[in-house]
Amino acid sequence: MSAPSPPNDGNKSRLTDKQKKQNHIVSEQKRRQAIREGFDQLADLVPGMQGQGRSEATVLQATVEYLRKLLGQKDKLRRIALARGMSEQEFESRYSGAERAAQAAYDDVGEGSSAGGR
Fold first, then answer.
1. pLDDT digits 0-9 by tens, 76-100
2. Is the dihedral of CA 31, 35, 37, 38 positive or negative?
3. Can you state the angle between helices 56-83 and 88-113, rounded to 10 degrees?
4. What is the model's pLDDT at position 31?
């Protein structure tokens, strides 16, 4: 009785160095495309960045500035709400609800305008 051979080892074809290199090139192209698409999506969300020729560094910097502005606005609203007697928990609950409603409205608009693909 002979020892069982590993399944399909004899039938597996090894990739050549040229095939490995080509696979690597294709994978790298896909990775770069995904990054470009991500930066395009960020640029579409940040006011003032839509439709501009831009570098990734510019998009990142504008995104950081925009997020800081939004966080500052939220903090200002929190201070006003607390000064008017609203509890922190109530503020967070209402703010979260408003965020969800805004996101749903944004999603609805996006779906309506993407009939031809986005």
1. 999 999 999 999 999 999 999 999 9
2. positive
3. 140
4. 97
